[in-house]
Structures are given as C-alpha cells and as structure tokens.
Design brief:
Number of helices: 17
Structural class: alpha/beta
Bound molecules: NADPH dihydro-nicotinamide-adenine-dinucleotide phosphate
Helix content: 40-55%
Largest sheet: 7 strands, mixed
Number of strands: 14
Shape: globular
Strand content: 15-25%
Strand order of the largest sheet: 9-8-7-6-10-11-12
Distance between the termini: 36 Å
Length: about 450
C-alpha cells in the first residue's frame, strides 16, 4: 500500500469506531470525517498526539445534557420539546457556542456543531472551549408570548449547567436578540446575578456593538483575504448569498460596502434573483421583513419585481463569489459543479458545514478559493468572546474598535490557514483550518493530562 492508501485506511478505521459508537448521527459522522482526513496524517507525524489519544478524546463530548422543556401555548395547551446542551471541550476556556431552535435539531446535528465549534473557537485565538445546544422548538408561526414561555422554560433547566466561567451560550438559527433577551431575563431572575452568561445581548444590557454583524462581516473579510491571495478585490464581483437571516443580511451589507453586487437571497421556501443587486435600501426591506414581520423572502420579489424560484437554491445563478449563509448541506456535488462551471472561484462559508463532502471534493479538485465554515464564520464567536471581555471589564468598546478587532482576527485566521494549509501553489484552507485549530486544543489537552 502506498502512503495515501495507508492514511485512507486509518481514516476508515477511525470512522468505523466513531460510527459504531454514535449510531445514526450522520451529520456528526460527516463533520468528524472531514476533520480526521486532515488530522490523521498530521497526528501520524506528531506521535505525542497519537499516544495521548487526543483525537479519540476530542470526538467524545465532555458532557451531554438532555432535558424536557414543557410550556403552555396561547390556547392553554401543554407543549413539550427537547432541550440540549453539548459541552464538547473545555481545554482552552469555558464552553462557548450557540443555541439553535429549529424543528430539525437532534443530538447528531448538535454534536457536529459542537465538534466544529471546538476547532473554530481555537482558531479565533481567544480563550474559549466549544459547546452547542438548542431545541427542536420551531419559532415559526409562534407568538412572542409563546416564544417567551418556551425560552423561560428552556432556561429554567439550562441555568443550572451554565455560568460566565463555565459555559456561555449564544444565538444560532432561530435564536436572535428576542430569544436571547427572554433567556437572559429568566437566568437573571433565577440566579439573581447580572453576568455575561449569554452573548448576543442587547446593547443596553451588556451586549457588544458589531455582534449582530460579526458572522456575516467576518465571512466577507475572510473572502476578501482569500481574493487578495490572487490580487483580487470585491469591486465589481457578482455574489450569490443563500439564507436571509442574521448571517446573510450582514454578509450582504459588507459585500455591498466593499463594492460587490449581491444578486440572490433565500429562505427554506425558495430564492430571489435580483440582477440589479440588493442595495442598502432593499436590504433594509429584507431586515424589516425577516426580523420584525417574520415574513417570507418571496415578498422581496413581489415588492421589487424580480424573479422568485420556489423550492430551489441559488447555486444555479452565475457568480464570481458564493457565500452560503443558511444551513448545513445546502450545496451538493452537482450544485458545486454548476457554480464552478459558471465561473465561481471563491466560496466563503457563513453557515456551518453548508457544503456536502462531494461539493468539497469539487472545490478542492478545481483549486478554487474555498474557506470552510470553521474558519470563515468564526467572526461571530470571536465577537462573542469580545463581548465576554467587555462584560468582565464592565466596559463597552466603540463600534470602530470592535470592528477593527474582528477584522484583525479574521486576517489572523486566514494567515494561520495559509501557514498550515499551503500545498505548493495551492492553499488548502480545509487542512489549514483543521490543523491550526487542532494544535492549540491538543497542546492544552496534553498539558492538562488524561482528563
Ligand atoms: P437565522 O435563523 O437568522 O437564519 C437562517 C436562515 O437560513 C433563514 O433564512 C432560514 O430560512 C434559512 N434556513 C434555515 N434552515 C434551513 C433549511 N433547512 N433549509 C433552507 N434554509 C434554511 O440563522 P443565522 O443566520 O444565525 O444562521 C445561519 C447559518 O450560520 C447557520 O448554519 C448557523 O449555524 C451559522 N452561523 C451563525 C452564527 C451566528 O452568529 N448567528 C455564527 C456562525 C455560524 P427560514 O426563515 O425559511 O427558516
């Protein structure tokens, strides 16, 4: 067997054990597979990690909390959801990672997100461990009062497991400012303390400027750095974005600011194609539609008279840069090939694991610029880390200060990916992000002994 086959066999053996001991958790298997493909060759060359079974330990959460969330709907009927918190790894800091409220949430999805989060948080250079949590609760179609009663019940249990030095959750899909507010209120009421236990808080009660913008802005800063390796900028670039939530909105804002033209946005029902570009005024409409009225993206097409593609994803539209900002596995191999065939040569992932393994193979084989989520969307958690710092100092930094720190963190993450991922002329950002994120956590685990 040649070296490549030996490594592939080791990856297969490792995955066989992970699959056997975590049955049915397909997204978790997918995330681990992508990471160990980069890391097994690295660990083989660095036997201190192999002997201490660092990889085997990292795929096992330190703790999984699963609980019942009962609540009353507006008609007085009893509803029951599942609540989760995965405390994945605390080697370099308190557990940190978002809460997702979406009907598809299950243990496997949260374990994939928590596993990615460990490496992502390490990449930010800030002292944060990794975690993730959430519920199969669906906020769509619920009244504000129902969301509040659910959030209060969820926090009534979660509060005993978290704290500003233990575990600091944030938002994710279905969890924005409204939900963080209700959960923070309940935490404070039960624990009788005003602390930085959640991030993504409102500005008047401990939140940080630029936190809402951070993930979207960060993914664009990362793309800007990738483009710069080819002496390119965003000026004049046509950009396809998926999603129309928090990450998609602020990615759109930053691309437009840097001179690019965003031509698509989507939600789970379909996508809009606006060849004239989604300028600041149109984006304000999207923000009102999605964050206040909680309507569908289809209404954009009705308002501005552009195309709406029901039940489809935007990757059939010709573009230079694509920013997937909706959810996992939203670009398959075929769609990736269409993007590349249409001339797209830069993909920066605002969402977590939006590309399937087949899609990633297309990007790598085509040698395009591909920034995986754990590097490209790390800006969100980075500014959450800065929110924790400001809470500890009881100070609030200016917008410019936080944005400059975010920008320099994204530049550092990019440099670190280049350092660990350069293969001749090509930068393999997948290997770069996985190895750079791993080394810091692995060294901390080695130093802390078998725990
Ligand atoms: P939001 O809830 O604000 O928006 C999610 C968007 O994605 C909505 O447009 C939603 O459409 C769409 N979407 C959700 N699920 C699906 C699905 N199954 N199929 C198609 N579209 C879907 O979430 P965020 O913007 O915060 O998160 C988007 C992505 O970014 C996620 O992958 C998240 O993990 C990742 N991320 C977020 C961070 C943050 O700071 N918020 C940080 C790092 C990563 P609809 O309204 O129809 O549901």
């Amino acid at each position: 067997m040649d070296m490549a086959n030996v490594m592939e066999q080791k990856v297969q053996d490792f995955m066989a054990k992970v699959i056997a001991s975590n049955p049915g958790e397909v997204e978790f298997h997918q995330a681990v597979h992508e990471v160990v493909e980069s890391l097994i060759p690295f660990v083989e060359e660095n036997p201190q990690y192999k002997d201490a079974k660092i990889l085997e330990r990292m795929v096992e959460p330190e703790r999984v909390i699963l609980f019942r969330v009962p609540w009353l709907n507006d008609k007085g009927g009893v509803e029951i959801n599942k609540g989760y918190r995965i405390e994945m790894n605390s080697a370099i800091g308190p557990y940190k990672g978002g809460l997702r409220f979406h009907p598809t949430v299950n243990l496997g999805i949260l374990k994939f997100l928590a596993f990615e989060q460990v490496l992502k948080n390490s990449l930010t250079t800030l002292p944060m461990g990794g975690g993730k949590g959430g519920s199969d609760f669906d906020p769509k179609g619920k009244s504000d009062n129902e969301v509040m009663r659910f959030a209060q019940s969820f926090m009534t249990e979660l509060q005993r497991h978290i704290g500003p030095n233990t575990d600091v959750p944030a938002g994710d899909i279905g969890v924005g400012g409204r939900e963080i507010g209700y959960m923070y209120g309940q935490y404070k009421r039960i624990r009788n303390e005003f602390t930085g236990v959640l991030t993504g808080k409102g500005l008047g009660w401990g939140g940080s400027l630029i936190r809402p913008e951070a993930t979207g802005y960060g993914a664009v800063y990362f793309a800007r750095e990738m483009l710069a390796t080819r002496k390119e900028t965003f000026t004049g670039k046509v950009v396809c974005i998926s999603g129309s939530g928090n990450v998609a909105q602020y990615a759109t804002e930053k691309v437009t600011e840097l001179g690019g033209k965003v031509v698509t946005l989507s939600d789970s029902a379909g996508f809009i194609y606006d060849p004239a570009g989604i300028d600041a005024e149109k984006l304000a409409f999207v923000m009102e539609l999605k964050n206040v009225k909680r309507g569908r993206i289809k209404e954009y097409a009705e308002k501005f008279g552009c195309e709406y593609h029901e039940g489809q994803r935007p990757w059939i539209i010709k573009c230079d840069v694509a920013l997937p900002c909706a959810t996992q596995n939203e670009i398959n191999g075929e769609e990736a090939q269409t993007l590349v065939d249409n001339g797209c040569y830069c993909i920066s992932e605002g969402a977590n694991m939006p590309s399937t393994p087949d899609a990633i193979t297309v990007y790598i084989d085509s040698k395009i610029l591909y920034g995986p989520g754990k590097a490209a969307n790390a800006g969100g958690v980075a500014v959450s880390g800065l929110e924790m710092t400001q809470n500890s100092q009881r100070l609030a930094w200016t917008r410019e200060e936080v944005d400059a720190k975010l920008d320099s963190i994204m530049i550092d993450i990019h440099e670190n990916c280049v350092k660990w991922g350069t293969e001749g002329e090509f930068i393999n950002y997948v290997n770069g992000a996985n190895i750079a994120g791993f080394v810091k956590v692995a060294d901390a685990m080695l130093a802390q002994g078998v725990v």
